[in-house]
Amino acid sequence: MLIVQKFGGSSIADGDRLRRAAGICMRQRQNGNEVVVVVSAMGDTTDLLADRARVLGGKPSPREMDALITTGEQQSAALLVMTMESLGIPAVSLAGWQAGIYTDSDIRLIAPVRIREALSRGRVPVVTGFQGVCAAGDITSLGRGGSDTTAVALAAALESDCCEIYTDVDGIYTAD
After folding, report:
1. Is 144 helix (H, G, I), strand (E, B) or coil?
2. pLDDT tens for residues 10-24?
């Protein structure tokens, strides 16, 4: 069975939560499943990066804002892979462009060659959510909720059996 697991920023906000996420992945692998992980930026990283840009004054170009704010997911992916490897789980981080996610402000195409390659080598691909690459070769972001979108789109492109979205919240809300 192929499972896509998405971990939101609150689910990987610190070392303990990174270890918990890695443990969830490990249990699926121990059950004989292949796993692809999608991550958001840790905690409030995206907001902090956007605030840093605003402090500079002026109006940054959308291209440079995307280049800046997508670094949060890259940090998350690398840290989760390091955590997984410390637990004996072979893994590899892939930025959206490395994972074959082609975007503008939406996902246009997913060509998951490197994801499939990692799976065939017994590794867990940990993909940065919220981002891809446009036709011009620039990083583009998908906006709020973009990591969930990435996970669902990857699950469809990979024809996975399941897509699990994890978040740590104070409760379950039935209304806004």
Report:
1. coil
2. 999 999 999 999 999
